[in-house]
Amino acid sequence: MRCLFVIVSLTCAAPVLAGEASVADRYRAWQSCLNASIARQPAGLPHAGAVKAALAACGRSEIAYLETLAASPLFGAGEIDAARDTIRARAAGTLMIAARDRLDPVATGSIDRRRP
Fold it and tell me: How many angstroms separate the Cα of 114 from the Cα of each of 34, 70, 104, 105?
């Protein structure tokens, strides 16, 4: 949990920290890639499949983000490796919600089932 707090703190404070401005930029680039990838998924694709495809499609931007975090003086040698699964799990959870909203409008209430 400490790693996640530090990651969020570092991402939010990145413009203030000298030499760490690219952390926030890389995080935003990764999130933009994930959001765009989910938006391109075809309707009817299982949500888990859409999430897996989005994470795979955005692997390069994820690696760039994690490498930037690893270079931060706030992290020890193994802390990014330990936090990687947590970071991906949080992203996958957010993507699952986005996939549900995008790919299943009946479940989210944007289409009323009772209407003919």
Answer: 33, 51, 16, 13
